[in-house]
Amino acid sequence: MSTILACSNVTKSYGKNDVVHNLEMKLNENTIYGLLGRNGAGKTTLLNMITGGIFPNYGQIEIAGSLLKKGETPQDICYVREKNLFFGGAKVMEILQLASVFHKNWDWSFANKLLKTFNLNPNKKIRQLSRGMESLVGNIIGLSSRAPITIYDEPVLGLDVLMRERFYRVLVEDYAEHPRTILLSTHLIDEIAMVVEQVYIMDSGSILLQDEVETIRNRSHLLMGEKDSIDRFATGRQVIAKEAYGKGVLAALYGTLEEADKQQAHNLGISIEGLPLQKFFSYLIEGGQRIE
Ligand SMILES: Nc1ncnc2c1ncn2[C@@H]1O[C@H](COP(=O)(O)OP(=O)(O)OP(=O)(O)O)[C@@H](O)[C@H]1O
């Protein structure tokens, strides 16, 4: 599969602070990615660089084989921002009409269908919409653009559970018919775990881990046992976090465990459970470890 977006050594500083630091990222064509990180991790800053709003201090960004130049807005990207910049006095339909001009693959019949799916009145003014409804206008633009790269920054902010599920379902169904590259940036990990194929986990401006969701699921384990046993078992393995639990210790471990490993754990009186993605993420961020 070929690369459609590549960030090499990208750094963005404000004053003395590197908000994004030597960041490497490679997105393939026709894949759904999650960009995960807690508040302030640098996700929006990274997305603003990828979409041409701000320019890195160092490094380069390549989109569909061309280096992004300062001041350039990449044509192949549809960026659905966390905070929309829609004019409050404009009607929903006028915002869609404006967006359609910028995206050559725009599909009007799909856009009209989505207005119904999400119960949005196209004649309502933006300022009359709730926070969730405003998110939906952005999401309709992201979906209808059918852009080769669609980036959503916190796309379900303000949406109720029903609308969140509806959005993810439409996204996946449409992706199946019209494959493209989608990047979903969020801190709501468990919600997107069913949708994304690959994740980038970001913290303090750097990527801590990049892998397939399935691989992360298979490799993250929660061990429970006595401290000495856990320490013995952990030797030579990647423990990303450890905490006291009653008289024993809980340890989050990242790596493949073969049958022999599981037997060794059993012999040491250690129990092993899978680790939900959200919990794995919390441990990883707390530990601040980079996983190669
Ligand atoms: N223009 C700016 N000037 C100074 N600092 C900034 C600027 N923009 C962002 N930052 C800082 O950079 C850090 C990363 O912010 P960013 O918005 O990229 O994080 P984020 O991962 O998107 O967080 P959230 O999920 O809360 O939106 C924060 O500490 C923020 O205060």
From TrEMBL:
The keyword Acyltransferase does not apply. It comes from the Bacteria. Keywords: ATP-binding, Nucleotide-binding, Transport. Residues 5-229 form the ABC transporter domain. InterPro entries: AAA+_ATPase, ABC_transporter-like_ATP-bd, ABC_Transporter_VariousFunc, P-loop_NTPase. GO terms for molecular function: ATP binding. The keyword Nucleotide-binding applies. This is ABC-2 type transport system ATP-binding protein. It comes from Paenibacillus harenae.
